[in-house]
Amino acid sequence: MTDSQALVKTLDFQLNIQSDNESLLYDATLEARSVYNETTRLAKEGVDWNAIPDRVADDANLVKNTTQRVVAKALGAMENYYEYDDFGLPSHTKGGSYPLRANYEEGYNLSLTDDGDVAFRISAKPYKHVKGVLKGSDAHLDILKIALENDEWKIGTAEALFHNDNAELHVNVTNTEQTVRDKHDSRTVVGVDVNEDNVALTALSEDGVEDTLVIDFPEIKFERHRYFTMRKRVQNAGKDSIHDTLEGREERFVRDRLHKVSRHIVEWSRQFEKPCIVFEDLKEMRDSIDYGTRMNRRLHHLPFRALQFYTSYKASFEGIPTAWINPEYTSQRCPMCGHAERANRNKKRFKCKSCGHQDHSDRGASVNIAVKGVKKLDWNVPALNSLPVVRKVRRQASGLVDSPTVTHPTARGYQADGQVGVSD
Ligand SMILES: [Zn+2]
To answer: Over the chain (424 residues), what is each successive 10-residue block's mean pLDDT?
Structure first.
């Protein structure tokens, strides 16, 4: 039996820099990259890991605790590589910016303003600060404001980084009262595959696949495309204020739907014995390897991280832990025989080139994610002789759920358009 753990969240914000020195922050992230590279290079050379922090710190033009945090992260990546072979051998020759990691009240500080904003101050270089206010989703801002005012919450390390040329701050907060069951004390793993128009869920226990569900939300995709077209049109006409209004509306619409879907995921997961919800780690991926066009498209098409965040946040308040796995090959691998090939998949239809297994491709991906989750928790992967039929529910714009329809059992193959179903 393992102990339950504190509820920890990473909150993501955009930095609205008001001190007119954004380039200073960017320079610091370049410096962080050279600290990361130097640490990795020394570790590969076989230098004693205990000696590395001092050797690197002497040359780094960063606040001391920030240098230490970046060194620790680089060594952590090396350790992960040796222990789990997780994301490939860390590179020490990459250029560009690297997240600036800092301790709260040492490398960075936060405070509530009279206007209800959260002001930040980041020590980018020794004695040089970057200041402004945080922008971000209501969900993240709300938690941060609560954390700043409430003793139950502790604010931890943060990372300042550039994403698509925008400065961001990712802040770790911990709720010291609320606990989440240790993920190693789980009996069921729920693999979650997030797509532009659905999420596919598979619950896997030591006995095999317990159940599987696809939640369709075509209206999110539809509305996002509709808003995109409208925004383009008013932008071309030079009507920026309407553009911003539309963007706000779209954001609220999508956020509202994603909240409902994430609640649904947690509700569904709760029915299983000691569940652990498993997601693909899209954050790590962006920094490490190019996973090809499908993944890049997925990264940009839906606020995946928002859905993952809402789900893990709601789950943790039910005491349900979440885990993250490397997304490599989850959409191409055959869940039955393990054969991985891009051609196995054709949109929503999966047909294994090796064993002929047919499936709904997103459901197949969710099985693969669950299997990776099981491996991560160090269980034996159960033999998957057959998979249950794919049940689909659809989230209507009203938020109501249609009664479930049952599609063909996988042995008979899955209809690619998902519309033809055998009712139960
Ligand atoms: Zn196969």
So the answer is: 71 92 92 94 90 88 88 86 68 88 93 94 91 89 90 92 91 87 94 90 94 90 82 84 80 83 95 96 56 52 74 88 91 92 91 94 95 92 85 66 44 35 30
Cα distances (Å, whole numbers) of residue 83 to 48, 90, 271, 279, 370: 18, 13, 34, 21, 21
Q: What span, in angstroms and rounded, lies between the C-alpha atoms of 237 and 225?
A: 19
**Cα–ligand 1 centroid distance for 365 (angstroms):** 13
| CA dihedral sign of residues 135, 287, 282, 49 | negative
* Interval between CA 56 and ligand 1 midpoint (Å): 49
Ligand 1 centre to CA of 357 (Å) is: 5
Instruction: Please name which of 317, 322, 4 lies closest in space to residue 181, comparing C-alpha atoms.
Output: 4
Sequence-separated (6 or more) residues with CB below 8 Å from residue 225:
none
- As annotated, the residues of the chain forming the CATH 3.30.420.10 domain(s) are 183-394
State in Å: Cα 384 to ligand 1 middle: 11
Cα angle 110, 114, 116; round to 5: 70
Distance 411 CA to ligand 1 centre (A): 12
Amino acid sitting at position 341: E
Domain 183-394, architecture per CATH? 2-Layer Sandwich (3.30)
**Residue among 189, 225, 223 nearest 367 (CA):** 189
Cα angle 352, 303, 80 (rounded to 5 degrees) comes to: 65
Distance 54 CA to ligand 1 centre (A): 51
C-alpha atoms less than 13 angstroms from C-alpha of 210 in its C-beta half-sphere: 20
User: pTM of the entire structure?
Assistant: 0.62
Distance 341 CA to ligand 1 centre (A): 10
Contact 128, 24 (CB under 8 A): yes
Exposed/middle/buried for residue 374 (C-beta within 10 Å: 0-12, 13-18, 19+) = buried
One-letter identity of residue 322:
T
